[in-house]
Amino acid sequence: MTMHHDGGRRAxxxxxxxxxxxxxxxxxLAQDPRTSEAQRVAREWLALSDAGDAKxxxxxxxxKFKGALTVDQWGQALAQARVPYxxxxxxxxxxxxxxxxxxxxxxxxxxxxLYRTNFAARDASETITMEREADGIWxxxxxxxx
Length: 146
Prior knowledge:
By secondary structure, the chain is an alpha+beta fold. The protein has helices at residues 8-24, 26-30, 33-50, 54-59, 63-68, 71-82, and strands spanning 88-99, 110-119, 123-132, 138-145.
């Protein structure tokens, strides 16, 4: 699921450009100690997502994520986005990029994680945008699959 606000085309273009650059530097960043905790949190969140647990994924998300979608809205979006792909067979982190900006987000501390995922029905790219919130904990602020 991708959420778009005003400037969505510019944000999508910026994200597409970032994605291309991130893939070029993936090997070095995948082991970046600044992203290791975010990666751990993302793996836990993805496991809940794989199980279709909309409430748990919503509860574990950032304040911005929760403010944008109710649990019911997120549950519908998660099911619509994930059910067509089927069960996860394998998931590989292909890029981990620390950033001080993210598309359609205010300045902050972010990590963008890109995964190549083999699902039962077909392969896909998943993008998780993590934010380190004021309490120092990494939480999901965005998820997309394509």
